[in-house]
Amino acid sequence: MAELLLEIRTEEIPANALPGARRQLEDRLGAALAAAGFEGFDVTALSTARRLVVLVGNLPERQADREETVLGPPARVAFDGEGRPTKAAEGFARKVGVPVEELRREATEKGEYLAATVHHEGRPTGAILAELIPGVVTGLHFPKTMRWGLGRHAFVRPVHGVAALLDGEVPDLELFGIRAGRSTVGHRVHAPEPFEIPSPGEYAAELGRRLVIVDPAERRRRLEARAAELAAEVGCTVHPDEALVAEHVELVEYPELVRGRIAGRFLELPPEVVVTTLRHHQKCLILEDAEGALAPHFLAVIDRADDPEGLIRQGNEWVIGARLADAGFFFAEDLKRPLAELVPELDRLEFHRTLGSLGEKARRAGKLAAWLAGEVGAAADPGTVERAAALVKADLVTNMVGEFPELQGIMGGHYLRLAGEPEEIWTAARDHYLPTGFEGPIPESEVGRLVGAADRLDTLAGLFAVGEIPTGSRDPFGLRRAAQALVRIVAESGWEVDLGEALGRAVEATAPLGGADPAVVREQLEAFLADRVRRWLVELVGVAGDTADAVMGAGWTRLPSLAVRARALEAVRGRPEFLALALAFKRVRNITGGQPDAGVDPALFREEAERELHREAAAFHGILETELAAGRVEEAFAAMGRLAEVLDRFFIDVLVMAEDESIRANRIALLKQLGRDFLTLADLSRLHVEGGEQ
Length: 694
Fold this sequence. Notes:
Elements: E1 2-10, H1 18-35, E2 42-48, E3 51-59, E4 66-74, H2 75-78, H3 87-96, E5 104-108, E6 111-120, H4 125-138, E7 146-148, E8 153-155, E9 159-166, E10 174-175, E11 178-179, E12 183-185, E13 194-196, H5 203-209, H6 216-233, E14 237-238, H7 242-251, E15 256-261, H8 271-281, E16 285-288, E17 294-302, H9 311-334, E18 350-352, E19 356-357, H10 358-375, H11 382-391, H12 399-403, H13 410-418, H14 423-431, H15 446-465, H16 479-492, H17 499-514, H18 518-541, H19 545-552, H20 559-572, H21 576-592, H22 608-629, H23 633-641, H24 644-653, H25 661-678
Antiparallel strand pairs: 1-3, 1-9, 2-3, 4-6, 5-6, 7-8, 10-11, 12-13, 14-16, 15-17, 16-17, 18-19
Helix pairs in contact: 1-4, 6-7, 8-9, 10-11, 10-15, 10-17, 11-14, 11-15, 13-14, 14-15, 15-16, 15-17, 15-18, 16-18, 17-18, 18-19, 19-20, 20-23, 21-24, 21-25, 22-23, 22-24, 22-25
């Protein structure tokens, strides 16, 4: 069996592009080889910042011979009335390269067709790879691509070399106008000289000797071990940062770290300022002391084996020191004016060209937050909530947030706290941007949750009113995340507020600004939010998709009770009687759909089964009211399940669509009345019952 190596050397590839490129290389090349008839091979993609690599093991030297059945024209046109081949049959025989007499008839789902068995002789693996690889590589998708030279080629970065080996031989392969060879280069600082690759199996070891670690998993192991070692030397630990470590892995060919110092005076700044400077601007790991506080040290990743003169360490210290000195100046300047004095300046910042300024948005959100406070019975005073909504955006006009946009909200919390504002106000400023979609914590304080929910309601309603509705992958304003965050805040706060009414209030305030029909905007927005609620039920509450559909079919705008109903239905839906009930309820919905509401007259009953159903339905109605009043939703669902046998007898013994119009209307009214009670819990017709048709 043979082994393939393919290496594409490029200029530095962005770190965020490499994991996806490796996955695509494995998937696309594996699929192409399988389509060519190869079996039992294994594909491994590797990479560094300057090369994409794929290794394929267990490849035969030749493709296996194979036979293929090829269908031709229908038999009715392939032979004439006397059974002689027609021109259609002769043309098909020429096409597949077999004598006409070797053609046969073959029955298919569409009828009888002419067929032939074609023998394909296996070709050398190298020749097949030379044909497959260019399509696999040029078909890779990247966040951004570049053109170089005369602009004929496009790839993630300009390509400098291609190495390819099938065991010891170089396939006749060309990529991006470059003929494949067997040479590559080592680390650009320590071993930039070209060298020949002996074989695919020796490739990684030869590069390792030249200080290129081509396996991302090995680079991660080295970085994590080195980080722990450098931190321990100064009595610290590394603050966990999975995302940054993953980025470090993709930034280097040889993984190494240097430790630098932070001047003690900078640790007097809010810790988020120091962390943002280190992490977001310099991509440095944070060190913590034994108490978990910021330590005066950092770790910077370098793409070389050492820093013998300390120049890299010193350069990082200079840059970080300069940025923190700027931050210290901004912090001192911002503290000269209370944040409350900056609120009028929000009227100079545009939120949206049609929807007005951030000041106007804050005032709309304040009114909505005050209304929400009353609806949910909040302990916070509505006036306090409205004032908080006016203050939480004010840090957007500070010097610090102008320089460090990542700190919006966080700096507002610090400034309001230092100005002596109540805790519920400054924590609202700090937290009101939380959560980011379905991830992260919700705001800590009740005021923060009210302001955060109102802010997102206003954003959603306003942007829908001006036509900025997400489509496909396009969501430039992050409205999907805003809706997900709104759902989590309302649900996890336990607010039994009607989200439909809340959306309606937000739409009333914003639709006129965009010249939109409020009814249309509300309908679009409710459909959009309902989709996020369904995802929340499935992904966070943890119920099946059809369970979510069923409980939402009975109303979805009060989230805490919706979650209770969803969990209760999930708990009972597997019981045999409940499966039978779900099937029966589908019949109830089919029969009563579109029928007018009417009272039930027991005097019109003709069958014992309908009398029994009427008695049991009345009993269920009473049980339902009692159990729901006590919050026992699962017990209410269980009581519903006990009606399965009664409904089954009703449908066996009673002809609902009786010829007598009054009897027919009475029976439909009985089913509709029962259906209304069921729909206080769930629309069982939306459940998928396996084997239900049988």
